[in-house]
Amino acid sequence: MAPRLLAYVAMFLLVCGSAKASHASSFCVSVWYELGNCLNFLTGFYADPTLECCNSVRTLNTMAKSDEAEPQSICECIEGVADAYRIRFVASLIQDLPIKCNAHLSFPISNSMDCTK
Fold first, then answer.
1. Which of 43, 25, 40, 53 is nearest to 86 (CA)?
2. Which domain holds residue 64?
3. How far is CA 117 from CA 74, 76, 96, 114, in A?
4. What is the residue-wise DSSP string for 29-78?
5. Is 97 among the domain residues?
6. Residue 66 domain-assigned?
7. Which of 12, 64, 72, 112 fits a disulfide with 106 by CB distance 3.0 to 4.6 angstroms?
8. pLDDT tens, 2-50?
9. What's the pLDDT at 74?
C-alpha cells in the first residue's frame, strides 16, 4: 500500500471511528482501499487507470450490488474522505473511468456528490 494511501486510511479511521459505528468504519476503509487504487487517475496524475484501479472498480461494483443501500454507503465513504482531505476529482476522468476500465460505475463519484440519489 502506498504511503500516501496509508496516511489517508489512517486518518479516515480516526474520523470514522468517532463518527460512525465500527462496522461502517471498516466498510469505508474497504471502499477507500479500493478507490485508492484509482486516485492517481481520478485526480489527473495518471493518463490512464491502472489494472489495479479497474479491478477495484469491479470490486466496488460487486459491493454496490450486494445490498440496496450499498451504493449510497459507498458514496458516503468516498464523500467523507474526499471532503476531509480536499481531494479534487477531475470530472472528465470520472466519466472516462468506466470506459477505460470497461466497467459500469454502480456508485457516484464527484466533487459535489449527493449520496441520496
1. 43
2. 3-101
3. 12, 11, 21, 6
4. HHHHHHHHTTHHHHTTSSSS--HHHHHHHHHHHHHHHTSTTHHHHHHHHH
5. yes
6. yes
7. 64
8. 555 545 555 555 554 444 445 567 889 999 999 999 999 999 999 999 9
9. 92
Tell me the torsion sign for CA atoms 64, 76, 98, 32: negative
CB 46 within 8 A of CB 37: no
pLDDT of residue 5: 52
pLDDT digits (tens, 9 = 90+) for 40-89: 999 999 999 999 999 999 999 999 998 877 899 999 999 988 888 899 99
What is the greatest pairwise CA distance in the chain? 37
Scanning the structure block, which residue is given the C-alpha cell 459505528?
A: 21
User: Grid coordinates in use for 14?
Assistant: 480516526
Residue 8: Cβ within 10 Å count: 22
Total domains present in the chain:
1
